[in-house]
Amino acid sequence: MGDKTHNGEATTHFGYRDVAVGEKKKLVGKVFSSVAEQYDLMNDLMSMGVHRLWKRHYVSSLGVRPGHHVLDLAGGTGDIAALLLKRVGADGRVLIGDINAEMLRVGRRRLIDRGLVRGVDYLQVDAQTLPFADDSFDIVTMAFGLRNVTDQAAALRSIFGTLKLGGKLSVLEFTQVDKDGLKQLYDLYSFKVLPALGKAIAKDEDSYRYLAESIRKHPDHATLKAMFEDAGFEKTQVRLLSGGLVAIHSGYRLQ
Questions:
Q1: Cα–Cα nearest to 248, from 66, 64, 47, 60
Q2: Domain tally, the chain
Q3: Which member of 32, 169, 192, 244 has the lowest number of beta carbons within 10 Å of its beta carbon?
Q4: What is the pTM of this model?
Q5: How far is 228 from 153, CA to CA, in rounded Å?
Q6: Is 74 inside a domain boundary?
């Protein structure tokens, strides 16, 4: 969160705009309610399908074992949960948590359509104030959702409190591209092609412009690693994928 104020109220960023802290949650909610039905299709088009490879690699790196209880935050349309369910087995559970009711509705419908009904639950939650007891989860995952959270530091602290001793948080998220040639190409794609796709497919140019801007406002991978450590996580690691387009941050609760 920023330290600017507007009419006496603290502000934060919503893409490239400064908005009141209390307003960002509503604005982000409108974005995801608008794009929920076309979200998976747009991800396929925007990444040319590569997001599915990132997610498969991400889930394979988690160390999920049969019997584990996993919280998938910003679980959206359920694609990460579907991969997790194969790994937790009959004795494990996956809880999909998302702040947006429409994304949860779409995700639930799609998992049911795939026959994935056992071992999965759904809950509308705010990552900043999770309503779970200590020692609830073996692993918490969050794929492409942290950058939309208003107070990311608060979310990391809240997640830390829900983990069992030895439990792990892993976040898959876009990061700052620092290679000049790639950065220029990425900027062209993000601010020209992406909004045009959003307008043509999802009928929502503004939401996809925000999503591009939100990537640029997200902390770089070194800063986010430090935020993990400030929240109490230990043995933190960062792995960059696809030339630094995305990163996997992970850390453990060891005390």
A1: 60
A2: 1
A3: 192
A4: 0.88
A5: 8
A6: yes
